[in-house]
Amino acid sequence: MSGRKEYLCYTDGSCKAAEGAPGGWGFRIEPPAGEPLEGYGAATATLAKVMEYRAVAEALAALPERVSAVVFSDNLALVENLTKKLPVWRSRDFASVDPLVVDSVRRIDASITDKQLVVRWQWVRAHNGNAGNERADALAAQGAREAKASLERRGRR
How far apart are the first and last CA of the chain? Predict the structure, then answer.
C-alpha cells in the first residue's frame, strides 16, 4: 500500500415515486488533498437500487489510477454484495448478478481492475448527519428532480 493515497467516495441513488420512475445518482469524492469532486446524473424508468450501483460505478470511474478508496453507501445490501460477492461474480462472468444492476457491477469491477484500485466498502447510516453522505444524497435527489422535470416537459408536448 506504500505510495497510495486514500480517497473517500460517498455515493447515493434516488428514485421518485412518480410516473416514469425518475431517478438520480450522485457522488462526492474527497481526495487526500485538493478540492472535492462531485457528479450526478438522471435516469427514467429506473429503481433506487439501480441508481445506487450506478453512483458507485460513476465514482470509481472518476478516480485516478492506483489509489486506495473507501466507498461509502447507505445501501447495506450493496456494501455487502460488493464486499463479499464481487470476486465470485467476476469468476462466474457476472452470470448471477441481478440483471438490473449487472452493467454497473461490470463497470465497478472494470474500474477496480483496469485502474488497479484498492477499494474498501463501508456502510454509513442514511440521513444521520454524515456530511459526505448527505451531499451524495442531495446530488442524487437533484438528478431525480431533473429526470422528473424532463418527463413532465415531454408529457406537455
Answer: 56
